[in-house]
Amino acid sequence: MAHLITIFIAAILTHNIALTYLLGMCPFVSLSRSVKTAFGMSFAVIFVITLTAAINWPIHRLLVYYNSEIISYIVFIIIIAASVQLVEMIMERFFPSLQASFGIFLPLITVNCTVLAVSLFMVLREYSYIATLVFAFGSAVGWMLAIMIVAAINEKLKLIGDVPKGLRGTGIIMIIAGIIALAFLGFGGMVDIK
Amino acid sequence: MKLVRLLIDRLYDIRALNKLKPLIDAVDAAMFGPAETTEGGPHIVDNVDLKRYMSYVIVALLPATLASIYFYGWSVLRIIIVSYIVGGVVEVIFAIVRKKEIHEGFLVTGLIFPLVLPPTTPLWVVAVGVVFGVLFGKEMFGGTGRNIFNPALVGRLFITIAFPAIMTTNWQVPFTDAITSATPLAVYKTTGSMASIYDLFVGKTAGSMGETCRIAIIFGGLFLIFTKVSNWRIPVSYIGTVFVFAAIGNRLAPGSIAPPLFQVLTGGLLFGALFMATDPVTSPFTRMGKYSFGILCGILTVLIRSFSGYVEGVMFSIVIMNALAPLIDHIVLMLKYRPVKI
């Protein structure tokens, strides 16, 4: 139990997937203009990351059993794309209002590299099934924390900021993310991810 | 006086100097006081303008500055001068390029930044830090009153990560030239022994230049709170949380979490809580937001001090909370002014 809590905290703070590994930067930059869109996107990400990690773990075991680990990258990507499609179809049929609120974000998650990264980290660090689920959920929550912080800062900057012309948009988001990443280094050594 | 006025007016007339207008403006303002009212933040509802506001902070910082010169000698003054000159050049260049006024906010940043450095910091590291802090902490966001992070802390954060050997090991002992020792927090972390409360109060322990003499800091901080330049909510909730959290934590895990009074009096806590967390631009503006800002700062400080690889947690926790401040305000406003569903 303590091990699982450690993994969860580490995935959010010390090994934050957006601020430490700089993964998932495309939606991070493009969707962090307003808190509302960032909130919608991060919920979709939490859902998909946890689901795909839960499916990918047994499949990876199967590939190891048949000694064909070499194709695991392709298999992971296919499963991610397929499960996103499946989720979208199910939601369209049964929860149309929820699907409407996710909008374009759901299909976009297919190309969000955090999703693939979580599946690859799970292989690399040899997590058990439960640990994988906790790690996937924690990583997604960490990504949500990062994008929400940047989105709120962006909204404030829209009101009071006077960013130089060349830095508006992507540039200032990268600078903000960099400063926050520096500050998150302060958590270094607090908990270990293994 | 009239002669100076005439000279400055003549300078305005010379066309070749038009590009340097911000610089002339600054000299004009320093000599005669500003004629205009404030345009941007930090706003206050009082007959105190931005310039007076900043000079109050400088006055409040004076006791700590004088104490650091007393304890560590004239090298402190050298570091402050380097910080002012190098940071001032960056500020002036930006003002000229972007055709804006030079803001007096830099006078505070340029003094706070050296006060949070170790006394033995080489001058080139001071210059690197102040350039990074002013450039990426302030000018990128539009200058004074528009910054998201505390510029002095951004500068210190950068050089702490970039030059860890310089920034975390050489702590000069007061009244000596070359003898170095570990800070009280580092000593506690390695051996478990604590410096005496009296030494901590007066400032006879190793530490950053401006943070060691706690009496001077408390005087300056109280001056700011009583003149209502800074708000009491953040320092009270910040220091209170550290005290309570350390008291509980010390019972549960006495080996890693230091006792409460020691926590409050060591490191940069008092300096950070009274001078840096209270910055009205980088902290939440809602009342509930201010309390939660202070409480979260306190929790993060104790956690980072006790469990991470770094000994001191005030700098990291304030920068992290600066980043979170807009989100806190957003949540508070959302909870308070929820749109009514009909």
Derived from helix and strand composition plus strand pairing, the structural class of chain B reads mainly alpha
Sheet with the most strands, sense and barrel status of chain B: 2 strands, antiparallel
Discrete helix count of chain A: 9
> What coarse outline of chain B follows from CA principal-axis ratios?
globular
CATH topology of chain B: Ammonium transporter fold
Return the domain count of chain A.
1
| Quaternary | heterodimer
Strand content of chain A: under 5%
Question: What's the end-to-end separation of chain B, in Å?
Answer: 67 Å
Biggest sheet strand order of chain B reads 1-2
Give the chain pair forming the largest contact, with residue counts: A-B, 31 and 35 residues
Q: Which second-level CATH architecture of chain B applies?
A: Orthogonal Bundle
Spans of at least 5 consecutive residues with low confidence of chain B? none
CATH classification, class level of chain B: Mainly Alpha
**Chain-averaged pLDDT of chain A:** 88
Reading the helices and strands of chain A in chain order gives HHHHHHHHH
Strand-helix topology:
The complex is a heterodimer of chains A (194) and B (342).
Chain A (H helix, E strand, L loop, with lengths): L1 H11 L12 H6 L4 H31 L6 H23 L1 H7 L2 H4 L4 H12 L4 H32 L9 H15 L10
Helix pairs in contact in A: 1-8, 3-4, 3-7, 3-8, 4-5, 4-7, 7-8
Chain B lengths: L1 H12 L7 H12 L17 H23 L2 H23 L7 H11 L7 H15 L13 H12 L1 H6 L1 E2 L7 E2 L2 H8 L5 H6 L11 H13 L6 H20 L7 H6 L3 H8 L10 H21 L6 H23 L6
Antiparallel strand pairs in B: 1-2
